[in-house]
Design brief:
By secondary structure, the chain is of the alpha+beta class. It has nine helices and six strands. The chain has a four-stranded antiparallel beta sheet, covered by helices on one side. It has a two-stranded antiparallel sheet with strand order 1-4. Helix 6 crosses helix 7. The longest helix has 34 residues.
């Protein structure tokens, strides 16, 4: 289940028992603040700050005791998708990114945040929500269900959703981030808990640009690694009369190029995954 993914597990909280683990209700402003902190950290290249902010948003969501707004849901999906993209989890990034696009179909990233041509931006801005699938789930015998800030019983199967269970007194008693393959939260009148069959994704406009991007990143990775190899050979060539400072510079360049090549390999894999999902 992707509800409890890498960093989230570190919190020691699973979705199944998240409500019982809440010591106090969390209001929407706290989630908004965590998402805003994640944006600032990402813009500042603060990886640790981004991780802390995402962890705070994830830990707080199950304890929200008021319906989230569609706007908040869209922002939450975008940050979760970006987090999963950075973790090289293409399918989860695609599911979260698509959800944000469905809620806010005209949203455009700021170029300073994600430049044009960025794989995650291409995936979201090129997503066609008209091909999405839904499933009608049983209405609660008491209370109501909300999905991404809207009351109803249509559960998305092609992208993620924020599900909330509301009791007869219009109080939210449970909230969860649900990926397409996850079972819904239990509620009065619900069917036995079972993960849904996720429909196969249809082709979308984003696929071709993402495949091109993946190919370009793959070539860049190979080229970078080749340059690193050349630098390494120069470093090991004893016939060259190089000073200690020059040797140190060569070694640093070689190590740096290998790291860059590895990063590009990861980006290639995620771009390919996004292309397959979208």
């Amino acid at each position: 289940m992707r509800r409890v993914i890498a960093a989230w597990c570190a919190l020691g909280v699973s979705e199944a028992g998240a409500s019982d683990a809440c010591e106090a209700p969390v209001d929407a402003a706290a989630i908004e603040g965590a998402l805003a902190s994640a944006v600032r950290a990402f813009e500042s290249l603060d990886d640790a700050g981004f991780r802390r902010a995402v962890d705070a948003a994830v830990a707080g969501l199950p304890c929200v005791r008021a319906p989230v707004t569609p706007a908040l849901a869209a922002r939450y999906h975008r940050i979760i998708g970006l987090d999963r993209y950075l973790a090289n989890d293409g399918p989860a990034a695609a599911a979260a990114g698509a959800a944000s696009r469905v809620i806010e179909p005209t949203f455009q990233f700021d170029d300073a945040f994600l430049p044009p041509g960025h794989p995650y931006r291409l995936a979201i801005e090129g997503f066609d929500a008209s091909s999405g699938a839904f499933r009608e789930v049983p209405a609660p015998t008491t209370g109501a269900l909300w999905f991404d800030g809207v009351p109803g019983t249509r559960r998305p199967l092609s992208w993620s959703t924020i599900q909330q269970v509301v009791d007869a007194g219009d109080v939210v008693v449970d909230t969860a981030y649900v990926f397409p393959e996850d079972a819904l939260l239990s509620y009065p009148g619900a069917e036995p808990v079972a993960a849904p069959a996720v429909p196969e994704a249809r082709p979308h406009r984003a696929r071709a640009p993402l495949l091109v991007t993946a190919g370009a990143l793959g070539v860049a990775s190979a080229v970078t690694y080749g340059i690193a190899g050349g630098k390494a050979r120069m470093y090991g060539d004893l016939s060259q009369d190089l000073t200690r400072e020059q040797l140190g510079a060569l070694r640093a360049q070689t190590n740096g190029l290998v790291v860059v090549s590895g990063v590009l390999v990861g980006a290639t894999a995620v771009s390919g995954s996004l292309a397959v999902v979208f």
